[in-house]
Design goal:
The radius of gyration is 48 Å and the shape is elongated. It has three domains: 27-143, no CATH class; 149-226 and 392-430 and 455-591 and 611-634, Rossmann fold; 242-349, no CATH class. Helix content is 28%, strand content 31%. Helix 2 runs antiparallel to helix 3. The two termini are 86 Å apart. The chain has helices at 2-18, 23-68, 77-90, 178-194, 273-277, 450-455, 475-486, 496-507, 514-517, 550-553, 561-581, 601-606, 618-632, and strands at residues 99-108, 112-122, 133-145, 149-156, 164-166, 175-177, 203-210, 228-236, 242-253, 266-268, 280-284, 288-297, 300-322, 327-349, 351-359, 370-372, 381-383, 389-390, 425-426, 441-443, 468-472, 526-533, 544-545, 548-549, 585-591, 612-615, 634-637. The strands form eight sheets. The protein has a six-stranded mixed beta sheet with strand order 21-7-4-22-25-26, with helices on both faces. Strands 9, 10, 11, 12, 13 and 14 form a six-stranded antiparallel beta sheet that branches. It is α+β, with helices and mostly antiparallel strands and 639 residues long.
Length: 639
């Protein structure tokens, strides 16, 4: 019985082992847990990868924003706020369900901003296997770099730059002089762009302050300046040196003296009864004349002629006349006085106002004073050449015309030759006198020369501070730049073409300074002109400028002031085009200028594409200069 039972169990077990029905269910049940673990891991790891990638992108964006805001190498709370704002925008709260999100940024030297970001990402599936979250962290760094670059700041320093403008955009009425705002913005530009890493590159900056002319004498070769200059001036009128402008006459008398005592009886022979018996008479003496002068004071001389006549009054008494003998006896007493006539003749020195050619070769060293007889009453006027120049030979062309051939002042690369027409002329305001037309004029008017007018900060005949050539921005260069910018003063009328011509000449890789401005270490150099102005052209024909005295010299052919503005603006357009053809990037900044106004269209067109900006306050000007510095540099991720 027992054997039968055991045999049955053995047979049943063998049958069960041989039966495969239901095995798949059992195997699936056994494998479901590891499958869930594998799939869950893929999901959570994928989410972690996406979150890590997004965290890295947000960190990068944050430090880029922070470095962009790091103008002048300063990294404080405002810059950190910009970095945080950009990080938070790219990795907002609870993204992917993250918690514990953090971001911090710090300066790394003066050219970089480094950052770290972290977040905790909870798992969705792997929490069942004890993995509740991922701790994510990334590092990032943004760096400002610059390749070999030349930058020429062409800065309007005309009289209107002394006017006030809003200090910031917050209102409140605070103002600052525009020239002070320019100094601040230009210095910020320098500190911003020099904070970029250069590696083996080179950064040079130059400055061209301009108004009616540009001061380049200190950087010019002597042979580039002509030995003579012809300008509207004056000289003594040798044909009639003095002109009588007035004659006056004044009469006066002295008070009579006291009467003398009565005389003893006098006897007068061979006289008449009428003569003997008269009671009184006045006897006129011989007149005398004295001449004082001519006495000269300045350009006026006076001559005084005084004629004095003496008089004696007589009174008589006890007269007795013998008619037969014609003898008279009588007593008398007398008193004296005189009368004078003073005649004053006034004469004025007579000048001939005309064009004069001066030999100025001795003044090229900028220390030896020039001296010519253009002063008051033909006296010598002395003054050194301060470095400003009149343009070389030009041709008049209309405001809608192209420059004719041999318009030398429009050629930014022409190196002067032996031909004086290719050379610049000295700007000598102390020897230049205005007149209303090219016709010579004889006049007794003692006009004031343009140099004296500009001494009192008048805009006529103004000469700005000297330019600064492209200078390597090492420590010495930075100091030189700061000194130049802080020395800017506002004076003069607005001739944009003068500033652009010299900005282009000083940065061009060809022409005057080709030996200094070519490629650097065999590599190309980026070239930029930053042209800042606070106003439209203002080029009165009565002003002495880089084109001379237009109403007399008529170099550009302007018929009135409006035509002068149009012609100078046209010249600006051609100079801008010449610069851009050299591969120079031209930036235009209008400070308090509406660049949308149609009359500023050619100024906007002067800029390279997308490079025209407006600033309505000191803060905006500083921001624009800083933005340009960063655009010229290259902002990149270095980690």
């Amino acid at each position: 019985m027992r054997g039968t039972i055991l045999n049955g169990l053995r047979a049943g077990a063998s049958k069960l082992l041989r039966d495969q029905r239901g095995n798949a269910m059992m195997l699936t049940a056994a494998a479901i847990i590891p499958v869930i673990g594998i799939v869950g891991s893929a999901v959570d790891i994928g989410r972690a990868y996406m979150a890590q990638l997004r965290l890295q992108q947000a960190c990068d964006a944050g430090v880029l924003a922070g470095r962009r805001a790091m103008a002048g190498g300063s990294y404080g709370d405002p810059q950190k706020a910009e970095a945080n704002k950009m990080f938070n925008f790219n990795y907002p709260t609870a993204m992917y369900g993250s918690t514990g999100i953090s971001f911090s940024s710090v300066p790394v030297g003066t050219s970089s901003v480094g950052g770290t970001a972290a977040a905790t990402l909870p798992t969705l599936v792997m929490t069942m296997f004890g993995k509740e979250n991922f701790a994510l962290s990334v590092n990032c760094e943004a760096k400002l770099e610059i390749s070999s670059t030349d930058v020429m700041l062409v800065l309007d320093v005309t009289g209107s730059m002394d006017d006030p403008i809003a200090d910031n955009d917050a209102g409140g009425g605070a103002t600052i002089a525009k020239i002070a705002a320019l100094r601040n913005a230009a210095n910020l530009f320098m500190t911003t762009i020099t904070s970029a890493e250069r590696g083996d590159g080179r950064l040079r900056i130059g400055v061209v302050p301009y108004s009616g002319t540009v001061n380049v004498g200190a950087i010019m070769q002597s042979s580039w300046i002509a030995d003579t200059v012809t300008v509207p001036s004056r000289q003594p009128n040798t044909a009639a040196l003095w002109t009588t402008t007035g004659n006056t006459s004044n009469n006066s008398s002295t008070n009579p003296s006291s009467w003398s005592g009565w005389s003893a009886t006098q006897t007068i022979n061979n006289t008449t009864n009428a003569n003997c018996t008269k009671g009184s008479e006045t006897i006129t003496g011989t007149a005398s004349t004295t001449v004082n002068g001519p006495n000269t004071s300045g350009d006026t001389r006076t001559t005084t002629t005084t004629t004095t006549t003496p008089y004696t009054d007589y009174q008589y008494r006890n007269q007795s006349f013998n008619s037969s003998t014609k003898v008279c006896t009588r007593q008398y007493r007398s008193r004296t006085y005189s009368s004078s006539t003073v005649q004053t003749k006034t004469e004025k020195y007579t000048y001939t106002y005309l064009d004069r050619t001066f030999d100025v070769s001795s003044g090229k060293n900028m220390s030896t004073s020039l001296s010519f007889n253009t002063g008051t009453a033909g006296a010598s006027q002395s003054a050194p050449w301060t470095g400003c120049v009149m343009e070389r030979a030009t041709n008049a062309f209309a405001s809608n015309a192209a420059p004719p051939a041999n318009t030398y002042d429009m050629d930014i690369d022409l190196v002067p030759t032996a031909n004086d027409d290719t050379k610049w002329r000295m700007f000598i305001p102390y020897f230049v006198y205005s007149r209303s037309s090219p016709t010579n004029v004889n006049s007794t008017t003692n006009s004031t020369n343009f140099g004296k007018q500009s001494e009192n900060f008048g805009d006529t005949g103004a000469c700005p501070v000297p330019v600064m050539k492209l200078t390597n921005m090492d420590d010495a260069g930075k100091t030189a730049f700061t000194t130049k910018i802080n020395g800017l003063k506002a004076q003069g009328y607005t001739y944009h073409d003068s500033g652009m011509a010299w900005g282009a000449r000083l940065i061009s890789p060809d022409g005057l300074f080709a030996a200094e401005n070519g490629n650097y270490m065999g590599r190309p150099v980026g070239r930029h002109i930053i042209f800042m102005t606070d106003g439209e052209m203002n080029t009165p024909r009565t002003n002495y400028s880089h084109q001379g005295l237009e109403q007399v010299m008529q170099r550009i052919g302007a018929t009135d002031n409006a035509d002068a503005i149009a012609r100078h603006t046209n010249r600006l357009s051609y100079l801008c085009a010449a610069a851009k053809q050299k591969g120079i990037v031209v930036w235009i900044i209008g400070f308090g200028v509406d660049l949308d106004d149609a009359k500023n269209a050619k100024l906007v067109a002067c800029a390279s594409s997308g490079k025209a900006y407006e600033a309505g306050s000191s803060a905006q000007l500083a921001s624009i200069f800083s933005q340009i510095a960063q655009q010229i540099s290259r902002l990149r991720l270095s980690q």
